[in-house]
Amino acid sequence: MATLKIENLNKTYPNGVKALDNINIEISNGMFGLLGPNGAGKSTLMRTLATLQEADSGTAFLNDIDILKQPTELRKVLGYLPQEFGVYPRITAEQLLDHIAILKGITDRKERKQLVAYLLDKVNLLDVRNKSVKGFSGGMKQRVGIAQALIGKPQLIIVDEPTAGLDPGERNRFHNLLADVGSEVIVILSTHIVDDVKELCTNMAIMNLGRIVFHGKPQDAMDTLKGKVWQCSVERDKLDDFKQQYKVISDKMVAGKPLVHVLSDTNPGSDFRQVEPNLEDVFFTRINETVTA
Amino acid sequence: MFLTFFLTEIRSALKQPMVWVFLVLIALMVFGATASDNVVIGGTVGSVHKNAPHVIAMFTAILSLISLLIATAFFNNAALRDYQHQFNEILYSTPLSKSGYYFGRFFGALILACIPLIGVALGSIIGAKVAVGWLDADRIGPTPFEAIWKSFFIFVVPNMFFAGAILFAIANRWKSTVSSFAGALIILVGYGVSGTLLSDIDNETTGAMLDTFGIRTYSIESKYYTPIEKNTLSPGTGSLMLWNRLLWIGFGALVLVSSYLSFSFRIKSSKAKKKKETQKIVANIPAEMPIVLPAFNTATQWTQFASFFTTNFLSIVKSTTFRILLLFTGILYTVSLIDGFEYFGLKSYPITYKMVDSIEENSIIFIMIILVFFSGEVVWRDRMSHIQEVIDSSPHRSSGSLLAKLFSLVSVVLVLKLFMMLIGILYQLLMGFTFIELDVYIISLLLEIPSYLIWASVMIFLQVVINQRYLAYFTSILLLFFLDILWEILDIDTNMIDIGSTPSLPYSDMNGFGDGGWGTFWFTIYWTLFASILFYKAVLFWTRGYHGTFMDRLKNVKRSYRGKTALVLTSLVVAWLVCGSFIYYNTQVLNTYRTADERELVQANYEKNFKKYQRVPQPKIAAAEYHIDIYPYERRIDHRTVVTLINNNRVALDTLFFSTDPDWDLEIEIPGGTLVFTDEEGMFRKYALGTPLDTNAKLEIVYTGGYKTKGFENEVSFRSLVSNGTFINNWDLLPMIGYNERVELEDKYDRLKHGLAEKARMPKLQSACAEDCNVNYLSEGRADWVEVETFISTAGDQIAIAPGSLIKEWTENDRNYYHYKVDHPSQDFYTFISARYEVFRQKWNDINIEIYYDQKHAYNVETMAEAVEKSLKYYTENFGPYYHKQARIIEFPRYSSFAQAFPGTMPYSEALGYIADLRDEDDNNVVLAIIAHEMAHQWWAHQEIGAKMQGATMLSESFAEYSSLMVMKQEKDEWSMHNFLKYDHNRYLRGRSSETQHELPLYKVENQGHIHYGKGAVVLYGLQHYIGADSVNAALKSFLEAYRYQGPPYPTSLDFLAYLEPRVPDQYKHLIQDWFKEITLYDNRLTEATYTEKSDGKYDVVLEFESRKLRADTLGNEIEVPMNDWVEVAVFKDSEMKDVLYYDRIKMDEIKTAVTVSVDTIPAKAAVDPKQILIDRVFDDNFKTVNER
User: Fold this and answer.
1) Is the dihedral of CA B73, B75, B77, B79 positive or negative?
2) Once rounded to an integer, what is the mean pLDDT over residues B350-376?
3) How far apart are CA B339 and CA B334, in angstroms?
4) Are B816 and B832 in contact (CB under 8 A)?
5) How far apart are CA B826 and CA B899, in angstroms?
6) Burial class, B136, CB count within 10 angstroms (exposed 0-12 / middle 13-18 / buried 19+)
7) Is the CB of B292 less than 8 angstroms away from the CB of A78?
8) Interface of A with B in 10-39 (CB under 8 A)
């Protein structure tokens, strides 16, 4: 049973942006979803955990590995898919994965070949393994990225926005792949796609402005809003007035008309219909709270 | 729309530092070159102003080439900015004008590319203003505004337009920076190719037209410029230059327009490859994730290193840039091989060391590009590919990754080198040359590897620490090119501060890699340690992930600097310092050497302190008996020399002066003499004689001493004493009696700097000289004709040679001993030689012809012996007897490349005739020419020698060169002699254009090669052409008979002319004035050549031509003088000008003349002065194809 324990982690950039504001969190085996809007500090947290950035203060431990002080030890058990995953020119998918496998300490040639073949198969790239990886489409490159993150025997897998650019089929395959490994190790999935978290994660946190604004199970999160979310369809030109009047969680277009979710303890009006809160409602509610707070 | 893009392009770039940095850089370079004597670009010597129009033109031209790399950045940016920012899709979909966008950007970039070159004007103007303070006023001319703007519009604008058009097109087509830089390279290589073509004189015009930058075009136009023309003429638009510029602007415009036409706003959809790959399916793909156990131990690190190395290495080797580099290096090298190794039109065999040298020459710039450019590539590779987060967070060691980068860089250089070696070997085989010395190839390469490692470390260090790719490039280039200049300005001259440099180890077939091995070894260790320190620092600074500012990184470095890291780094530094101290001890304490400025100071002080003794009477050497022991493998020589002095002066002498060489040990024993003075530098001694030496009295003194090699030096300084091929002359061995004028500074500005008055190169020619003719220019009053006997020993496997006949030889203690004696008193000018020789012997009329050669160089030995024989034959017939019983040609290592004549002995560099390829008999037989020249010195210099004053070398060098031509002429058809003469013409004309003082006529030559060899040969050959060889030879012979082996007074050039004049028929009498006593040039051109068929089947050829005679004053001003000369015309049947239809001499007394001649068949070509007898700056216009009227 692995545990990732983060305590009082802080990071302020030279331009004054507080990217990590006293983060405290404990994560154990399983899929962990980290939700947050752009600029919430997710990537800073991910990079810090991946030993690529230093924090100003605080600690982060994976079991007894001090991530900030023993980066080398952590790297031995890390699988990391960064938000931005590029590839070298003039190298094939197989060669690239082989190279990364060596870097991850898999020195036995035969073992490596098997592993690379297995992973290429899993990400459905086996038939293009001898093609220049630079020429791959965005989705294919992303799959190479996923494959490399699984190489070795990672105890901590960090994936930053992994499903961006994947088509639904690929996304499902990826979810299955993560689910395969996710039960035994810690997988941190940083994303702004709420559905990813809903489908995969047993635990989650929501980050905004450098702070954890929610931490818990997705179901618990949704339970906190039970009976408080109301839905209503409005005319587009009325939307602004509507926002003035109610505590709007979100609005999205459905059949050309905005469908609005409103947070309210009581029924706000006859046009409204109570709905089961979904994770998106939780997400927006939490974000809005931090902004207005 | 055009204006919008044009202005945006310029405005945005002007806000960036790049354009300003380069402007300042160029201004600084030119400022330095103008204001300092130590920096020279494009060559300004002697009386050419530091800011002369010619100098400005050269600066501008050369710098416009160098700034091509800057220009690439601007054009590439202009073409790719939107694309790289992925803004193109947005931009292209807006309704903007294609032409406005395209040309606006292009011309904006063009302006930007030109801006840095304004630095030439700034640097020169400011430099000239400032330099007035410390440079001599007459080295600065008026500000040449005309030259400045003309150069700008002749060189900068067209060059940038041409290069820019190509670069812009490439950038738009391939959308990659790498391709743009590769394009820049192609342009540079085009430049190189045209240069190679140019080195062959026949292709000058082609080369000039092909020169994409007009630099060599300008060189050709200005090649015969005199100093005064260099100071006044702005680069004009002579026809060649004009056509060249139009050609390349036109070419640029063509490229620009066609690339515009193919440019489209639509995004190219990358073609889907339809090739169906039959994929082998991997047999057993595991169903479950295979269980692997990562291991992290030493073996892992090696595997990781290997993997890093392979990926880095392959990424470079597979890159377009590298492939283009490789290709062009190959092309350039092949071209240089085809044209190379040539001297006077004759090629040498493709000896391996020559191949190695030319690999070095042709690869150096590419290696620099590879090291600079790819150091950035490998360091930034992960970040450029956006994979750094994955790589950085993987459990590898930074040191392994960086080390792999370092080795991949070096390996890439090796790939280039090996590729060139392969070409070299193929070329050798193609030339039918099978003596391929693989060991020489390989050892040369091994010797270079450390310097690549060192430079690669430095550059990786810079990239890592500076952490800004382009800034690091810039710094690397500064280090590579400007560090040397900086040290020179500061007058620091040691390999210890010149990154990666070691004592050089030139390979010689005779002496292998020579005797500097230990020095090179220690310097290599020293620099390798230095590189390791930098590399270690680079590892510490290496950023994994995001580590903010430099200060943050510095903090990290400090944090990691402890424990093992600190220990390793400290021990490296200590080792480096220890090694440095050891080198310092060897190069600065055990051996001392002086920097250029220190040497000047010593020379100046010597003159200031001892010049007063120059006129004090001293005895002369009458006889010498040498006892010399050479220990070649220790590089040591001991000698004991007994010299008999004679007092030829009218007064008795009580003091003797000796000018000594501080590097040599020396004891002087003088009967009854006491040492009364020694100077601090060890350059001068004074001895008081117990009893004065009376007039005509003799005195025997004994010198004992020698030269010992101690430790190692900064640069092997005395290559005359080496393991195989020792070649020492008597001036090295013995001190000079009296004041040694040769020590004095020559250059007038050097002299001025040290407060010394300007010095005449030679005393003035005097018609009636008394005292002044008592000294000849060779022995300078030290001696007249000397009896010499030598006992010499050397190592058991070597032969030692001294002047004269071999009296006896024996072996003792495994050493070879020889006793030689000169057969006839000779000049006090001889040489002692020792090496492992093979000897080829031949006899001609009791004279032993001996060719001493290295066993590898047997190619031309028989030809050489024949050449000696032919010379002996012609000279004894025409000039008089030979006074030695032997004529020896002796090979010495290529540390110097000349041949020299000592009495009966002619050392000849291994780089010259020994390896000349004489298999094609149509080529100029340079071996014969050089040997005949040196043999001629046995008469001209060793039987008669000129008094030390102007004109002296005409009596030896010009005569020898003439004699050599005459021997050649016995062999050759007279019509093909001009194939050889043209090199003499060129030598003279080029030489006079870089005259540092005033040009003098032949009879007042001041020991200048271009006059006494080049002009002397042309004039004397021309004279015999007009008045007949018999007359010239008779004059020479009678002159020689009058002065042969005569003591003082020595003859002058006027004495010779007195013998010559009676032999010249009246109609040619003026030639003595024109050719010997004045500087006369001709300008002949054939303006019209047509033929008409006559009724009798013959052809009338009408030739219209012009002949002008010009007289140059000593500054190079030319005035036209009336023509009253005989000029030859010829008509040829074939265009190779071999088959002569008509040939006659015509008296020209007008500028324009037309003649009609009748020939039997259709003529192909006609020529005025077809045999190239007259000195004519432009010879090409003497020929014309004859057309039908």
Assistant:
1) negative
2) 86
3) 9
4) no
5) 19
6) middle
7) no
8) 14
pLDDT at residue B341, rounded to an integer: 67
- Cβ–Cβ < 8 Å for B1083, B1181: no
Model confidence over B415-425: pLDDT tens digits? 999 999 999 99
Per-residue pLDDT tens for B907-963? Answer: 999 888 888 888 777 777 888 889 999 999 999 999 999 999 999 999 999 999 999
In this structure, what token pair is assigned to residue A260?
């609005």
Q: What tokens appear for A78 in the block?
A: 């890390």
B394 and A126 within 8 Å at the Cβ level: the answer is no
How many of the other CB atoms lie within 10 Å of CB of B472? Answer: 23
User: What is the CA angle B305-B310-B313, rounded to 5?
Assistant: 115
Extract the tokens encoding B612.
């007063």
CB-based burial label for B1113 (10 Å; 0-12, 13-18, 19+): middle
Provide DSSP, B394-409: SS--HHHHHHHHHHHH
| CA–CA dist B1105, B815 (Å, integer) | 70
pLDDT tens figures, B464-517:
998 888 788 888 878 886 777 778 777 788 888 888 889 988 899 999 998 888
Torsion of CA B603, B606, B607, B612, to 10 degrees: -170
- The CB-side HSE value for B644 (13 A sphere, CA atoms) comes to 13
Q: How far is CA B1015 from the centre of its chain?
A: 22
**Which residues between 66 and 85 in chain A have a beta carbon less than 8 angstroms from any beta carbon of chain B?**
71-72, 75-76, 78, 80-82, 84-85
State the smallest CA–CA distance between residue A258 and chain B in angstroms: 29
Angstrom distance (rounded) from CA B386 to CA B379? 13
Give how far the C-alpha of residue B874 lies from the chain's centroid of Cα atoms, to the nearest Å: 35
Query: What confidence tens digit (pLDDT) does each residue in B825-861 have?
Result: 998 988 999 999 999 999 999 999 999 999 999 999 9
Residues in B touching A20 (Cβ below 8 Å) = none
The structure's pTM equals: 0.81
Condensed to tens digits (0 to 9), the pLDDT of residues B689-700 reads: 989 999 999 999
Question: Which residue, among A55, A169, A38, has the nearest Cα to B546 in the 3D structure?
Answer: A55
Instruction: Look at residues A193, A163, A167, A166 and name the one whose alpha carbon lies nearest to residue A178.
Output: A163
- Distance CA(B381)–CA(B364), nearest Å, equals 25
Shortest Cα distance, chain B CAs vs residue A34, angstroms: 19
A178 touching B (Cβ < 8 Å): no
User: Measured between alpha carbons, how far is B848 from B996 in angstroms, rounded to an integer?
Assistant: 44
CA-to-CA distance for B841 and B861, rounded, in angstroms? 10
Between CA B928 and CA B1014 the distance in angstroms is 17
B282 vs A81: CB contact, 8 Å cut-off? no
B163: amino acid identity, one letter: A
Cβ pairs bridging A and B (under 8 Å): 136
Of A242-246, B31-35, B46-50, the one with minimum mean pLDDT is B46-50
Contact check, Cβ <8 Å, B295/A99: no
Other C-beta atoms lying within 10 Å of the C-beta of residue B696: 10
Q: Would the CB atoms of B389 and A47 count as touching at under 8 Å?
A: yes
Q: Which of B1059, B1054, B1026 is nearest to B1042 (CA)?
A: B1059
Can you tell me the distance from the alpha carbon of A208 to that of A221, in angstroms, rounded to the nearest whole number?
16
Say how far residue A166 (Cα) sits from the centre of its chain: 14
CB < 8 Å to B270, chain A: 135
Residue B845's region, left for phi above 0, alpha for psi from -120 to 50, else beta, is: left
Q: Is the dihedral of CA A34, A40, A45, A48 positive or negative?
A: positive
Contact flag B545-A76 (C-beta cutoff 8 Å): no
Give B-chain residues touching A145 at CB under 8 angstroms.
Answer: 390
Complete DSSP assignment for B466-499: H--HHHHHHHHHIIIIIHHHHHHHHT---TTSST
